[in-house]
């Protein structure tokens, strides 16, 4: 049995014998697309034990009864496509944008490794109770088997390095996430290297080049599919062209991890995807993340400013401070220019394909490809849902594609993905109905992970540095609401002479809102930072249009909010 399935059965000792009852809640049945009103859920030993009317349930004094009246319960969300080895920041893929003169790839990988626990908490805080890493270093297995087990976080499925048709030497610093295979023996060697670690599936990067067209490398993919079938492993394939995707399915693929973006999928292949029960993960927004970073047209979402790792997110605005002489050719040629028209065409094709596949009920699963440049862990999920909705999908379909379908696609629907007796109690309690408005997925009242009720605010406790950086990001985005959110209600701000110049959020809002509207070229660069316990000391260089001001600010953080700021000389 796979390590992951074993872990699903192992519950924290404190949950054994504990019963939680969610009373009179509205349960969303994603499979039948119905709401079971005013029912109750009995959770015992981390598993859903009963779903019935409250009056039929026997209550003991030890039971934890939670009132769900007027609330809506959905299965925990699943992100079916992420990468832990990538941070989402500007420096995370030197094979796509080489900025190693500014930040070494060793530093970038260390940052990603150090922040895995942080990413996991951010996923869970946003109601994402399962994440699936579709390819990375061998270190991925440590994330699943050790790191993820050391915290209260989402379920984690992983595979190891991608079996690739092309080489990516810039990503190889000893534990490469992508390994080129050019012979069946090399395929077998890499497969045998991963097998002892019990991968949850296998992934191939079926990338097409002039030197390696899809037909040439097809035998390698076919051989890998054969190895997977012999070892009861699903095969996930990166194949973004129609011809490549058709060959991938012919070879034995189970999962297509991206949209087909070069052609409208013909009816014959749609039928094949349906008949062969292929899972299709659209990943509609990941390329847009790259383009916005390359052109500098970052569109700051509420979710990114609130829930993205603020240190990783901050790097997306680093072109504001990078000397032009250090800009790589990709950045020079695209930065400050309009989005290339070819990507608008690809977006249109992807949306048409998604709509057509959805209409005939091909198994579609929500995945973000988080970790790639501009696609942040956890916070990018809602952006992906909104992009999928543009294909005309209903909110019921979005919920199905974000819960049960990815569980089916990766072979774990007997454990998670819907609210049924016998399944693991990974559920979300919402204050508002997401069928009426998908935005209501953000109205999280309670997260229940493996039967353990968690208040959202208890899951993610940001460090003082993260809190301060979050307000810097909001400042640079000129987003007054996100900026104010980083400060406590009784905030006090003192100038260099010790004079109190602002007190309370109302004064702050009045002071900064006008400036955010009028100063369109606003940017705060942190030239140096010292963190001492709950104090963060920043040496800042602030650009107001074409003027620059130097400042040193001492931020004091308490309970996740900035409570005092002292500007010093």
Quick tags:
eight-stranded mixed β-sheet; 569 residues; seven-stranded parallel β-sheet; TIM Barrel; 3 domains; alpha/beta; 24 strands
CATH class of the largest domain: Alpha Beta
What's the overall geometry? globular
Level-2 CATH architecture of the largest domain: Alpha-Beta Barrel
Strand percentage: 15-25%
Radius of gyration: 24 Å
Low-confidence stretches: 1-15
- Indicate how many domains the architecture comprises: 3
Number of helices: 20
The CATH homologous superfamily of the largest domain corresponds to Metal-dependent hydrolases
In brief, what are we looking at here?
With about 575 residues, this protein is of the alpha/beta class. Helix content is about 35%, strand content about 25%. It has 3 domains: about 120 residues, Urease, subunit C, domain 1 (Roll); about 325 residues, TIM Barrel; about 100 residues, Nuclear Transport Factor 2, Chain: A (Roll), CATH 3.10.450.50.
Walkthrough of the structure:
This protein is an alpha/beta fold and 569 residues long. It folds into 3 domains: 3-74 and 417-459, Urease, subunit C, domain 1; 77-408, Metal-dependent hydrolases (TIM Barrel, Alpha-Beta Barrel), CATH 3.20.20.140; 464-568, Roll (Nuclear Transport Factor 2, Chain: A). Helices cover 33% and strands 24% of the residues. It is built from 20 helices and 24 strands. A hairpin with a 2-residue loop joins β2 and β3. α5 (184-194) runs parallel beside α6 and α6 (214-230) packs parallel to α7 (242-251). It is globular and about 75 Å long.
């Amino acid at each position: 049995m796979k390590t992951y399935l074993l872990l699903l059965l192992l519950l924290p000792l404190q949950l054994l014998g504990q019963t939680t009852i969610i009373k009179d809640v509205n349960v969303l049945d994603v499979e039948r697309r119905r709401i079971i009103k005013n029912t109750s859920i009995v959770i015992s030993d981390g598993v859903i034990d009963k779903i019935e009317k409250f009056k039929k349930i026997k209550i003991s004094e030890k039971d934890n009864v939670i009132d769900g009246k007027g609330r809506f319960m959905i299965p925990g969300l699943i992100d079916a496509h992420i990468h832990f080895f990538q941070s989402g920041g500007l420096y995370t893929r030197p094979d796509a944008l080489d900025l190693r003169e500014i930040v070494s790839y060793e530093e970038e990988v260390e940052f990603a490794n150090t922040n895995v626990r942080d990413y996991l908490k951010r996923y869970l805080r946003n109601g994402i109770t399962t994440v699936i890493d579709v390819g990375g270093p061998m270190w991925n297995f440590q994330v699943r088997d050790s790191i993820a087990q050391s915290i209260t976080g989402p379920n984690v499925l992983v595979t190891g390095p991608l079996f690739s048709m092309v080489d990516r030497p810039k990503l190889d610093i000893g534990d490469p996430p992508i390994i080129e295979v050019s012979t069946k023996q090399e395929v077998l060697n890499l497969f045998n290297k991963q097998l002892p670690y019990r991968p949850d599936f296998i992934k191939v990067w079926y990338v097409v080049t002039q030197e390696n067209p899809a037909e040439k490398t097809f035998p390698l993919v076919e051989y890998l599919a054969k190895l997977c079938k012999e070892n009861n492993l699903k095969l996930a394939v990166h194949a973004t062209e129609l011809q490549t995707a058709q060959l991938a399915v012919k070879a034995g693929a189970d999962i297509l991890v991206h949209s087909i973006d070069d052609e409208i999928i013909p009816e014959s292949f749609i039928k094949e995807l349906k008949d062969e029960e292929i899972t299709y993960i659209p990943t509609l927004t990941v390329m847009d993340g790259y383009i916005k970073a390359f052109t500098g047209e970052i569109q700051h979402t509420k979710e990114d400013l609130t829930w993205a790792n603020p240190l990783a997110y901050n790097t997306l605005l680093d072109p504001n401070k990078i000397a032009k002489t250090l800009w790589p050719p990709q950045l020079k040629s695209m930065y400050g220019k309009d989005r290339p028209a070819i990507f608008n065409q690809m977006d249109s094709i992807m949306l048409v394909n998604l709509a057509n596949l959805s209409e005939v009920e091909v198994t579609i699963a929500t995945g973000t490809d988080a970790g790639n440049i501009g696609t942040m862990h956890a916070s990018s999920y809602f952006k992906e849902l909104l992009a999928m909705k543009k294909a005309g999908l209903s909110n019921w379909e979005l919920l199905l594609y974000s819960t049960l379908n990815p569980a089916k696609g990766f072979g774990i629907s007997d454990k998670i993905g819907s609210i049924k007796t016998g399944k693991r109690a990974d559920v979300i309690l919402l204050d508002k109905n997401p069928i009426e408005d998908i935005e209501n997925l953000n109205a999280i009242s309670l997260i229940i992970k493996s039967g353990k009720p968690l208040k959202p605010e208890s899951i993610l406790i940001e460090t003082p540095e993260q809190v301060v950086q979050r307000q810097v990001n909001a400042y640079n985005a000129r987003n007054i609401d996100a900026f104010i959110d980083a400060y406590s209600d009784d905030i006090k701000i003192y100038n260099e002479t010790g004079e109190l110049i602002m007190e309370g959020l109302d004064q702050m809002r009045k002071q900064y809102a006008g400036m955010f509207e009028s100063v369109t070229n606003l940017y705060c660069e942190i030239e140096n930072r010292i963190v001492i316990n709950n104090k963060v000391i920043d040496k800042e260089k602030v650009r107001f249009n074409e003027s620059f001001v130097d400042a040193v600010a001492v931020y004091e953080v308490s309970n996740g909010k900035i409570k005092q700021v002292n500007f010093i000389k």
